[in-house]
Known about the structure:
CATH class of chain B: Alpha Beta
Shape of chain B: globular
Largest sheet of chain B: 3 strands, parallel
Distance between the termini of chain A: 24 Å
Strand content of chain A: 15-25%
Strand order of the largest sheet of chain A: 6-7-5-8-4-3-10-1-11
Number of strands of chain A: 11
CATH architecture of chain B: 3-Layer(aba) Sandwich
Radius of gyration of chain A: 30 Å
Number of helices of chain A: 15
Helix content of chain B: 40-55%
Strand order of the largest sheet of chain B: 3-4-5
Oligomer: heterodimer
Helix content of chain A: 40-55%
CATH superfamily of chain B: P-loop containing nucleotide triphosphate hydrolases
Strand content of chain B: 5-15%
Structural class of chain A: alpha+beta
Order of helices and strands of chain A: HHHEEHEEHHEHEEEHEEHEHHHHHH
Amino acid sequence: MYWVLVKAGVIRKKIRSLLTMLSVVIAFFLYGLLHSADPLFSGAAGEINAERMIIMPKHDMMFGRLPQSHINYLESLDDVTNIAWIDMLSMDINSMTENIPIFAISKDYFKVMDRFKSSPEAKAAFFANRRGALAGKAAADIKGWKVGDLVSIPTFSKKNDGSNVWEFVIEGIYTTSPAADELGIMVRNEYVQEARVANKGTISMILFNLADPSKADEVSNIIDNNYKNSAYATFTGNEITLSQKMLSDIGNIKLIITAIISAVFFTLLLVTANTMSQSVRERTSDLAILKSLGYQDRQIFISILLESNFIILLGALFGLILTLITIPFIDQASGGLTGGIILFDSYQVVRGILIGVLMASLAGILPAYQAYKLKVVDALAKG
Amino acid sequence: MALVSINGERIDQMNSKQLSNWRAGNVGFIFQFYNLLPVLTAQKNIELPLLLTNLSSSERKKHVETALNIVGLSDRSGHKPSELSGGQQQRVAIARALVSDPDILVCDEPTGDLDRNTATDILNLLKSLNEDHGKTILMVTHDPAAADSAKRSLHLDKGKLIT
Lengths: 383, 163
């Protein structure tokens, strides 16, 4: 019974129904795309986790420096187990696919950052060669690098010989998740420290593990308090905290995106409610006829609500499907770098559908109530 | 105080839901302007009252075919109201009114929007429903010809019963 009534309502003004549905498709497509990037804004993409601790320069996380002497202090702390450090030799965040970032790593880097994988042979060859390098898979794919290649990379750092072009031999490939972290090349920190002119004895960040991960906050506070009044103040936290801190330095992106989606949905709600209300007003006589045929007020109420649900849920479904179709193209366009970051899982789909049901119910409830209260005699008289 | 009793049932004491159920089972309505749902075919329009019953799809189809046969529109079942003439639309409306086999047909100016020849056809059809199918027809009309076809006429003037 309801399907006949819903269908009659939807196809009565086909263009209007189609345009309303289209606006719902666009809104849910936007919802899908923005929410699929949630891991990026929560700082918890791929295998980034809370068990790996990082110390970074407090006031300039991207380009600030820390003296290597901080490592000596860290070694004196009881709960600290593995310690590694890293120096970003070259980092141009505006063209990372063009100018592959160079990370000068210490010996125990792979112990601490065990999410970076490379074969034991590749690692052995890397640590046996002063100018050895491990290329990230994404970087190797983009640049066409192979094991054994001698690569020359221009940087902002000058070498002792006056050149700012650094040469390395690719000894292996590393992989990790998120794939965006494969966009780099790892080189030996000892070699970089010897060969560079400026910033000798300094590094970009220190990484370590804890014997007891539950002491993360306690140890972080000890370290940060120790350097509180130093020229090299620190910010210590786990990988997720650090990712979030770096994002919050840019702005509260998640809040901005939530605000955008909320505004879109609120506007959509008004548009749909208005459309449904107009549709019911135009059908006053049809609804009165149905009531005169014996349809109960409750049945008319439900049919209007179902009509609203049909338009919004069908639109939402198409919008979500469009998102699922689009994400692989985004990943492809990024050279696979968004893999593990841009995710649209079943949770997002279910949440989208629930939002659709809520919106449809809100948009349809007033028009449905109008139809519910309609008096047959008055409505027929208005005709 | 007014009292409305039909077949022993006090409809003036019924609530909205009871009235809906009672209407669905006992009364068919025919309007001056046909009041068909424009997006549905003749067959679907006629089927509307049956959707409130427990009849299966095939049973509903059978009932609709019977109603269409009675009004002589079997060959127009797939047409939408906009594809039918005024007389044909009124026949569809009559088929819709009688498809659930009600005892009473309430007609509000059933010939008011039709030319004389078509109006005569519709009046003949109503007469046949009364005489051959035993339907009680309650008709409101300004048309003297339509009034003449009734077995009993009551005259209302400005809401007052004259004769």
